Amino acid sequence: MKKMILICCVAGLTFGQNISNDSLAIEKNFVLNKKIEPSYLFADIRIESSSLLRNIGELNDNDRKSITSTLNTIIVEAKKDDICKGGSYSINPIVNYDKNDRKTIGQNVDFTLNCKFLEKDGLAKYNDFLSKINKILSSNRLLTLPQPSIAYRITDDEINAAKETLFGEFLSHINSIETKYSTLAGKKCVVNSISTSDDYIPSPMPRALANAKMESSNADSTTAEAPIANEANITININLRFICK
């Protein structure tokens, strides 16, 4: 993972009133930045109604059982690789209202699996899983798999780890910072308090692999290649209060 750390100072010095005849309070704000690249790929696999199912009208019991059986089989396969979670689904009628008439046009299937994996260890598993889904759907003309999008995203753990690294590296410079401000103030300055605030500034969205949706039933989703990851900028603000005597 590529890393870069930048430490800078902003907002100038703030001098407080003397807390005693010989003491001076000084506050200083520091801004620290760290650029990191995300490690994890994310993909949402959605299985939808085929054109046939969207125009089938009322759903008979056999077709309903066929849909639920197919989706349940996909959930069982997802559990084997453990890179995709979710799998709840619904089957709802597509209804058209004309004055007082209610007509069922077809059926809408909503099924989603949320996948998270490392490129090195998980991309091959992900593509193998897509192949299994395509094979399962090949025997069911009522369902289709549009090409899923795949993208790098920064995780909360990566953000928190970057913040901890920034703060730890800043603390390692506390003694030199105290020495610097002691020289400037002509007094012995020590850190009296330290407070932080932080912010995650995302870079532009990473380029994702997202082909046009496949409208025909049983159209195979293609093998996915990892997209190009963009760096994200992690920033924390540290406020130091010195007492100089």
Q: What ranges have pLDDT less than 50 throughout 5 or more consecutive residues? A: 1-12, 203-219
- Into how many domains do the coordinates divide? 2
Tally of individual helices? 5
The number of E-state strands comes to 9
Give the biggest beta sheet: 5 strands, antiparallel
The rounded distance between the terminal residues' Cα atoms is 44 Å
CATH class of the largest domain: Alpha Beta
Give a structural overview:
The protein is an alpha+beta fold. The chain folds into two domains: 3-37 and 156-202 and 234-244, no CATH class; 40-153, 2-Layer Sandwich (Alpha-Beta Plaits), CATH 3.30.70.260. The chain contains five helices and nine strands, in the order βββααββαββααββ. The strands form two sheets. Strands 3, 4, 5, 6 and 7 form a five-stranded antiparallel β-sheet that branches. It has a four-stranded antiparallel β-sheet with strand order 1-2-9-8. A hairpin with a 2-residue loop joins strand 4 (84-98) and strand 5. It is elongated. It starts with a strand and ends with a strand. Mean pLDDT is 84; it is low at 1-12 and 203-219.
List the helices and strands and how they pair.
Elements: E1 3-15, E2 24-36, E3 40-49, H1 51-54, H2 61-81, E4 84-98, E5 101-118, H3 119-137, E6 143-144, E7 150-153, H4 156-171, H5 174-185, E8 189-201, E9 232-244
Antiparallel strand pairs: 1-2, 2-9, 3-5, 3-6, 3-7, 4-5, 8-9
Features:
Alpha-Beta Plaits, alpha+beta, single chain, 245 residues, 2 domains
